[in-house]
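Per your request, structure below.
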């Protein structure tokens, strides 16, 4: 009976040892599962950032390929010179051209005699701005459309991702834009070309 009692006791110890070992294995599996989740999150973030920075690099390449010309008076004050402009500097020319179109469309102030008669309704500032942008866009459609479509898709890529802090990435894109780019982007957004 002592041997039977010792056998039961040893069986109980073995059972408790196995229980302890199972708990330890479960804890290790949970830790491995957590590590795997963290690795997957890191890989997902890394994949997203690789794609994001490739898109940002493509945007820089598109911007570098922009070409236009600025018209300046010739040194002899008879005629004009066309000076080629490349890259980011094109947006200053685009903004200046937009401003020229807008100023050219703005109606002259009415004199007293004209004000007495019923004048035609004047276009709103927004309408004048949109029409001015349409003229600029028509002249530079190939470059502006490509530039803004790619910029739109960068923001769309970030918006549709499941990254927790999207503002960090959109801030990086906005930091790349000059004041002239932002001005032209504004008019693109209020025009029919940037709808939505």
């Amino acid at each position: 009976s002592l041997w039977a009692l010792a056998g039961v006791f040893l069986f109980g110890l073995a059972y408790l040892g196995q229980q302890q070992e199972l708990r330890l294995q479960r804890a290790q599996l949970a830790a491995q599962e957590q590590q795997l989740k963290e690795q997957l999150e890191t890989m997902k973030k890394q994949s997203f950032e690789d794609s994001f920075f490739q898109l940002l690099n493509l945007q820089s390449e598109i911007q570098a390929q922009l070409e236009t010309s600025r018209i300046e008076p010739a040194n002899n004050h008879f005629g004009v010179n066309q000076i080629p402009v490349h890259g980011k500097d094109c947006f200053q020319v685009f903004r200046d051209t937009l401003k020229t179109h807008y100023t050219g469309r703005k109606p002259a102030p009415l004199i007293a005699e004209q004000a007495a008669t019923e004048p035609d309704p004047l276009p709103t500032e927004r309408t004048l701005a949109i029409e001015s942008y349409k003229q600029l866009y028509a002249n530079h459609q190939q470059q502006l459309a490509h530039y803004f479509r790619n910029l739109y898709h960068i923001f769309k890529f970030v918006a549709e991702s499941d990254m927790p802090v999207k503002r960090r990435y959109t801030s990086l894109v906005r930091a790349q834009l000059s004041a002239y780019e932002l001005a032209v982007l504004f008019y693109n957004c209020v025009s029919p070309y940037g709808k939505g």
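The radius of gyration is 33 Å.

Regards,
D.
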